[in-house]
Write a structure and sequence with these properties.
Layout lengths: L2 E7 L4 H11 L7 E8 L2 E8 L2 H8 L8 E7 L14 E2 L5 E9 L2 H10 L11 H12 L4 H9 L4 E9 L6 E6 L4 E4 L3 E5 L11 E4 L4 E5 L4 E5 L5 E2 L4 E2 L4 H5 L6 H7 L1 H8 L4 H13 L2 E6 L1 H17 L5 E4 H8 L7 E7 L5 H12 L3 E6 L5 H5 L2 E4 L12 H20 L5 H22 L2 H11 L6 E4 L3 H16 L4 E4 L16 E6 L5 H13 L3 E7 L4 H5 L2 E5 L8 H19 L18
Parallel strand pairs: 16-17, 16-18, 18-19, 19-20, 21-22, 21-23, 23-24, 24-25
Antiparallel strand pairs: 1-4, 1-10, 2-3, 2-4, 5-6, 6-7, 7-8, 8-12, 9-10, 9-11, 11-15, 12-13, 13-14
This protein binds fructose -6-phosphate.
């Protein structure tokens, strides 16, 4: 996730107007920043690695002259944070400048094609190809808008783009496909940005750009066109009533709730992991004699689910280990035939890094999955992949779990394919379900009303238990972690089959037990576990397939989730109601879910 902004002013200095917008978008990313404006017919560009205020101190972005310009705050996906990878990116002759939020999936073949036809590309980003594609179209004689239309038709993936061009210096051309982009209609000029807070202090008259649309923005006008046929679309602005603080949460009461609701998009982005990186990792995994998955907290739960998927789908034995235990328990076994796959949202968790450093010293290959490109984990890894979910402001990890698991399950599929241990039909079924995942997560979010009722009914309970079987032991553990860290309740989680070996003595009349019970290979066994709890007076809250009857009949409360989700993908859909339950319980208890007591977003001490 990055933040983009574009401004066309009637008078004044556009550099400072863009800078102002960027400071409001910093929550979308903050590893590098840049601006480009047009002044006296020439492109002026300033950009560098660093936070917005640091780069402003160094380069005075806000003093860039001109009436028209674009800006970007970056959260690296392709290419580490650096000056050359910072946006805006330009064409060969610095006549076109582009800022981009999203992922261009086919950038490698397009890059090769551009290089073969003489274009010189300077960065490692997927974005730079857009400037060169537009340049090529301009050279063929098309005007600016038509050049952008032709260029973007060649892109696969997700993109919000803002582009300026010296040949038509009064225009910004903006394009949207699957990444957010909004227009602000102001008195002093017009605005375009990833999000409304960017320009809310200037105007509250807003137009949402839809997928497949181009906006041509000048200081006096905004014109929307359909990318495919170029036909104009008429859309009136609406008035936004939010204050700036609420707007930063796009209208949600807390960042955590916003981030829970962002998951259809973050899962879609995570599902776009390039096959080249997955193949590289799968190759290392195939060659290894011992494979460990190492992480803490929520990231560990994603690993736990993935270990189950590695075993059942890729027929590989991998060992998930809590990072703080790794060196003491397995340090002596590590050698150069070992792969350690470390998973960390921040890429800076001390326990994870210590395990990784110890393993690296003993010769292990380090693979990393993280949300922070340029973090210590990326620097220690032989191969790393971004989870691509953008900054997570809530201290409790939510979109992190679903994004990390989405990346991990793609790695499982890549390993299964490489090892030829999966049938073509099974592969096709998984890949099709993977492409449907954002939709399944959206359906899961529709259960929020039901979950609020459940939170109200159970608000006085002093403890909860979460049970699941198979891959959803991980989901149950994650549901427990969310509830206990936000509601401060001593919640319990177990593999459901293990619950009768001790936990069951805790159960008394009306004790709440949450079952994660999809209709998978564990279904009949979990029904037995539900009956055991029910017989002791427990109140059963179950997460079930929407076509379920048997578990529904045994439950006091049910949350219905979409049918047809393959077991290996079910944690992504089934964890969402548990995140919502934890959120609403915390709010009803008067706790701030964004800042649970005693916790830090990144735990950098061992
Ligand atoms: C739970 C939570 C923590 C983190 C853990 C690991 O909601 O946020 O348990 O998951 O501290 O953090 P990363 O993934 O940054 O290594």
């Amino acid at each position: 996730m990055c933040g983009i902004s574009a401004v066309a002013l009637k008078e004044g200095t556009v550099g400072s107007a863009i800078y102002d917008c960027l400071t409001k978008l910093e929550y979308r990313g903050y590893d590098s920043v840049g601006e480009a404006t047009i002044s006296n017919g020439e492109l002026m560009i300033k950009k560098d690695k660093g936070k917005i205020a640091e780069v402003e101190n160094e380069l005075q972005l806000s003093q860039l002259p001109g009436l028209i310009g674009i800006g970007h705050t970056r959260w690296a996906t392709h290419g580490a944070p650096s000056k050359e990878n910072a946006h805006p990116h330009t064409d060969c002759k610095s006549t076109v400048a582009v800022v981009h939020n999203g992922i261009i999936e086919n950038f490698l073949p397009l890059r090769e094609e551009l290089e073969m036809t003489g274009h010189i590309l300077r960065s490692k980003t997927d974005t730079e190809i857009v400037a060169h594609l537009v340049e090529a179209e301009l050279r063929s004689g098309k005007n600016f808008v038509e050049s952008v239309r032709s260029a973007v038709k060649r892109l696969d993936g997700a993109y919000a783009l803002a582009i300026i061009c010296t040949a038509e210096p009064d225009k910004i051309v903006c394009v949207r496909k699957e990444s957010p982009l909004v227009l602000g209609i102001g008195k002093d000029g017009n605005y375009c940005a990833s999000d409304i807070p960017a320009f809310l202090s200037k105007t509250n008259r807003v137009i949402l750009l839809e997928d497949g649309e181009i906006a041509v923005v000048t200081s006096n006008s905004v014109k929307i066109l359909n990318i495919e046929d170029g036909i104009e679309i008429i859309r009136e602005p609406f008035i936004v009533e939010w204050n700036v603080e609420r707007a930063a949460k796009t209208g949600y009461a807390h960042f955590m709730l916003k981030e829970i609701h962002e998951q259809p998009l973050s899962v879609r982005n995570a599902a776009r992991t390039h096959s080249m990186f997955l193949d590289l990792m799968a190759g290392e995994i195939m060659r290894a004699k011992k494979i460990f998955l190492v992480a803490c907290g929520t990231s560990y739960h994603a690993c736990l689910g993935a270990a189950y998927a590695f075993s059942t789908l890729a027929k590989l034995s991998v060992t998930p280990v809590v990072a703080s235990e790794f060196t003491d328990m397995y340090g002596g076994l590590i050698d150069n035939a070992t792969v350690v796959l470390a998973v960390s949202q921040s890429g800076e968790t001390a326990d994870t890094l210590s395990a990784v450093r110890g393993a690296k010293d003993r010769g292990a290959i380090i693979l990393g999955i993280t949300n922070a490109m340029g973090s210590s984990l990326t620097r220690l890894s032989n191969v790393y992949i971004g989870q691509n979910s953008g900054p997570e402001m809530g201290v409790a990890a939510t979109k992190t779990f679903t994004a990390q698991y989405t990346v991990l399950v793609q790695l499982v599929i890549a390993s299964a394919r490489k090892r030829q241990v999966i049938t073509k039909q099974e592969l096709e079924r998984l890949e099709s379900a993977l492409s449907q995942l954002p939709n399944s997560v959206s359906l899961s979010l529709l259960q929020e009303g039901r979950i609020i009722q459940i939170a109200e009914r159970f608000i006085d309970k002093s403890s909860f238990c979460f049970l699941g079987r198979g891959i959803n032991v991980a989901t149950a553990l994650e549901g427990r972690l969310k509830l206990l860290e936000l509601s401060y309740l001593p919640a319990i989680a177990y593999p459901a089959g293990e619950s009768k070996h001790g936990f069951i003595s805790v159960v008394e009349q009306d004790y709440p037990v949450v079952f994660v019970a999809p209709r998978d290979e564990t279904y009949t066994k979990i029904i037995g576990n539900i009956m055991e709890m029910k017989a002791r007076g427990a109140r059963i809250i179950s997460l079930v397939d929407e076509q379920d009857k048997d578990v529904v009949n045994l439950s006091d409360e049910t949350i219905k989730l979409p049918s047809g989700i393959p077991s290996a993908l079910s944690p992504i859909v089934y964890v969402v109601p548990l995140q919502l339950l934890a959120y609403h319980m915390a709010v009803k208890k008067g706790n701030n879910p964004d800042f649970p007591r005693n916790l830090a977003k990144s735990v950098t001490v061992q």
